[in-house]
């Protein structure tokens, strides 16, 4: 991911350097110097905070858990990004995810900078009481660098509203008398969270796909039909016909995306496969997604892994290997699990012609280049999975004003913001021969450079 993001940002900068219409006040050597400092700003985080959380376990043992909070850039507003609870978390990964947040907020015009956190653990290895202690320790250790106007964490893989509630309560306790509702987002509604936050990312992910195929492409069918752009040709193949869909990951993002697809009446799509950390479930006639959501709610988030469990869930499906979902013969593949899922090893086996990235960085550069050359439409993470941070922004606003929106108001604002971004990016995508990811990065870099230049930070 690091290479991919950096090289695309570098290409975006090169393209902008040559464009005379961009920052026309800057000429000659001044221009080169400004771009050098822009490159330096974007390619390094402002700060990396690291701690070892010292946590007593219920059995008496004391563990030291590595944890991070990275501040990438705050030109657009306070740092913002989730806290990942996963055993493979490492510094480089957190830095990259924070960088992606800077670009994502810039793309969607959300007034936040880019940050990210991580705790190196498998949450399933700890009791609820121990996890509570871990969350409290994280806030104590990073209290100086977080806060409603400094850095606002949110959930990520392995964390959710329960952890955000615990963390906000600790922040409130330590910072007694100061505003605290905006210190964490992704909290429960009872504790100052926003209606619709839990569903926001999955809804936004599905919306980008639906808006592309149901709204944008049909409305521009005539001009796209006469275009030589390979992505226009691919997108046109998929309008007004039944589509088979597979969804990797059945957690917060994947399960909501699956429900959106299952219930969507605008597009004739059938969810034929879903997967999680254990299995892939497949049914060519379509899976009963509500029944699977119900089952996972009572099974620690996991899909059925045996015929007995499938029967218990009331679901008809065959059980396949965890990775099988990636290479199934489907039209659309949503990726909502972890990074690097489509890679050099499996890129030639991928059959889907539309890929939507709900997860962060699920496609490596090699796989991305290969699939893009074949005209596969990839709706990238930066565009597709911004629903969480957009509704986090709404949650933060509501916390500041202590005025709360209805669920309908939240969804209307979410989808309208995503539509605005799509309406800016899609004409460029179908016009330029660049993949969608690069079009998004160019747009983010333009917004960031303009702000940094006006803040006097490019010299
Ligand atoms: P989650 O923990 O709720 O769910 C993760 C899912 O992936 C689970 O179903 C898990 O079983 C599955 N999984 C784990 N390892 C796997 C593997 N090796 N192969 C296949 N499946 C595997 O997490 P989430 O909140 O749904 O986040 C999923 C992705 O979306 C992450 O990349 C996250 O960074 C990204 N994301 C989440 C949000 C959000 O609001 N939750 C926002 C933006 C991006």
Overall description:
With 459 residues, the protein is an alpha/beta fold. Helices cover 47% and strands 15% of the residues. It has helices at residues 2-18, 28-43, 91-107, 128-142, 161-174, 197-219, 221-225, 230-237, 252-263, 289-297, 307-313, 365-373, 381-384, 387-401, 407-431, 436-454; strands at 47-56, 62-73, 79-85, 114-119, 151-155, 243-248, 269-275, 280-282, 318-320, 332-335, 354-357, 377-379. The strands form two sheets. A seven-stranded mixed sheet has the order 9-8-7-6-10-11-12, sandwiched between helices. A five-stranded mixed sheet has the order 1-2-4-3-5. Strand 3, helix 3 (91-107) and strand 4 form a beta-alpha-beta unit. The longest helix is centred in the last third of the chain and has 25 residues, at 407-431. The radius of gyration is 22 Å and the shape is globular. The chain starts with a helix and ends in a 5-residue tail after the last helix. Nicotinamide-adenine-dinucleotide is lined by residues 155-158, 201, 248-254, 275-277, 322, 336-338, 358-360, 385, 388. Nicotinamide-adenine-dinucleotide binds next to helix 9.
Describe this structure in a few short sentences.
The protein has helices spanning about 1-20, 30-45, 90-105, 130-140, 160-175, 195-220, 220-225, 230-235, 250-265, 290-295, 305-315, 365-375, 380-385, 385-400, 405-430, 435-455; strands at about 45-55, 60-75, 80-85, 115-120, 150-155, 245-250, 270-275, 280, 320, 330-335, 355, 375-380. With about 450 residues, it is of the alpha/beta class.
């Amino acid at each position: 991911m690091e290479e991919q993001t950096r090289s695309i940002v570098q290409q975006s900068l090169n393209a902008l350097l040559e464009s005379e219409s961009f920052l026309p006040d800057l000429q000659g050597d001044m221009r080169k110097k400004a771009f050098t400092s822009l490159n330096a700003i974007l390619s390094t985080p402002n700060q990396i905070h690291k701690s070892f959380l010292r946590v007593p376990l219920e059995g008496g043992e004391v563990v030291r858990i590595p944890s991070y909070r990275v501040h990438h850039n705050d030109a657009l507003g306070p740092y913002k990004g989730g806290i990942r609870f996963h055993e493979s978390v490492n510094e480089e990964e957190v830095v990259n995810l924070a960088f992606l947040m800077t670009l994502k907020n810039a793309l969607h015009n959300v007034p936040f900078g880019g940050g990210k956190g991580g705790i190196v653990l498998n949450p399933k290895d700890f009791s609820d009481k121990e996890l509570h202690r871990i969350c409290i320790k994280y806030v104590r250790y990073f209290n100086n660098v977080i806060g409603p106007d400094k850095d606002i964490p949110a959930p990520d893989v392995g964390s959710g509203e329960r952890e955000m509630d615990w963390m906000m309560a600790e922040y409130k306790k330590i910072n007694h008398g100061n505003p605290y509702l905006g210190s964490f987002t992704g909290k429960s509604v009872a504790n100052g969270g926003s209606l619709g936050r839990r569903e926001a990312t999955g809804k936004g992910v599905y919306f980008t796909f639906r808006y592309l195929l149901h709204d944008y492409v049909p409305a521009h069918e005539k001009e796209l039909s006469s275009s030589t752009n390979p992505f226009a040709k691919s997108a046109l193949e998929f309008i007004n016909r039944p589509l088979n869909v597979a969804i990797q990951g059945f957690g917060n993002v994947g399960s909501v995306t699956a429900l959106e697809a299952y219930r969507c009446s605008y597009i004739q799509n059938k969810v034929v496969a879903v997967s999680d950390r254990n299995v892939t479930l497949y049914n060519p006639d379509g899976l009963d997604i509500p029944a699977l959501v119900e089952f996972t709610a009572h099974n620690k988030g996991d899909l059925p892994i045996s015929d007995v469990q499938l029967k218990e869930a009331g679901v008809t499906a065959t059980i396949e290997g965890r990775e099988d979902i990636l290479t199934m013969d489907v039209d659309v593949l949503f990726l909502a699990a972890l990074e690097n899922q489509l890679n050099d090893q499996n890129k030639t086996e991928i059959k889907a012609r539309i890929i939507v990235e709900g997860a962060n960085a699920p496609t490596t550069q090699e796989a991305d280049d290969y699939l893009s050359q074949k005209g596969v439409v990839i709706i990238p993470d930066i565009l597709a999975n911004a629903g969480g941070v957009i509704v986090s922004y709404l949650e933060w606003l509501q916390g500041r004003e202590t005025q709360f929106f209805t669920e309908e108001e939240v969804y209307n604002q979410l989808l309208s913001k995503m539509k605005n971004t799509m309406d800016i990016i899609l004409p460029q995508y179908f016009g330029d021969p660049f993949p969608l990811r690069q079009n998004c990065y160019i747009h983010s870099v333009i917004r960031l450079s303009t702000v940094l230049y006006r803040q006097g930070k490019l010299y």
